[in-house]
Fold protein-tyrosine-phosphatase.
Amino acid sequence: LLVSVRRVAPRFSIPPSNHEVMPGGSVNLTCVAVGAPMPYVKWMAGVEELTKEDEMPVGRNVLELNNIVQSANYTCVAISSLGMIEATAQITVKALPKPPTEPLVTETTATSVTLTWDSGNSDPISYYVIQYKPKSSEGQFQEVDGVATTRYSIGGLSPFSEYEFRVIAVNNIGRGPPSELVEARTGEQAPSSPPLKVQARMLSASTMLVQWEQPEEPNGQIRGYRVYYTTDPHLPLSMWQKHNTDDSHLTTVGSLITGTTYSIRVLAFTSVGDGPPSDIIQVKTQQGVPAQPADFQAEAESDTRILLTWLPASQERITKYELLYWEGEDGTQQKVEFDPTSSYAVEGLKPDTLYKFRLGARSELGVGVYTPTIEARTAQSSKCLIL
């Protein structure tokens, strides 16, 4: 009696599969091989035997990996008298990305900075985050999220200001550490605000001294100032007389017509262009007459009281201030005189009513130019009507 036995070379019915694990993670690699005769199954890492020769199981072998800290390849080997086969599983340890290279500033404008950088990572990066803040700020970084390229322009910055920038790479695990900081200064613009606290006073009957403070938003290095003056403030500014000066905050203007009221405006300029001119102030070309009060403001303090404030004129021999005020558009004008000060409260007013004010300074030689009209409304009455 002859018996036929079928012989089959080994093959994998369940080959080992690739895995991604977190640092310090664990995984079980399963390998199943079949054949006739049934093959022995062992695991190897490179040339290292992970399964002892006298402990090789038949058909199925499970490799337990714990505390995995680096990526590696593991090979399952199936052996029978009919041959040997291999299958390799790749274990990849997931990790946060490395920091990108230090960014390079490739372009600046008055309101933007363009950065470029290298990924610094061989593995894929999902996107980048750019962090930035003014160099002088102790606050938190602002962020631009979801940047898909290694070149980006950050806009909305302040002109002529120093900023710090850094870049963070993000993968499917999370954010990596930031790159080194890079600093950049934005470009200049023309000033976006006028000089502050413009004042003028007469040094003689035909020479005036004009002084001011730097604009709140210079947007660059102030190269100088232009003082415009005229006896007819209704003319366009281009037709006013012009006096240029350097970056100092005062100048004298001579050869004026005596006994005349002049209107004055001042603007600052950078290397890029001129800023806006200040509001009109006025001065009378009469020696010894006080200058127009500067920075005249009104604020309601209650339903019957409005507080007026202004800048006290320096080096002026003021004996009295004269205040004109009236209700609404055409109310009866009231006049009040009081001793030199820098504030005055008008009381006994009507609730929820608009009042208008003008202020002038007087010396022994006469009254100077009054301020332009300003206005303020008293608060609503706080009294309850009892029925």
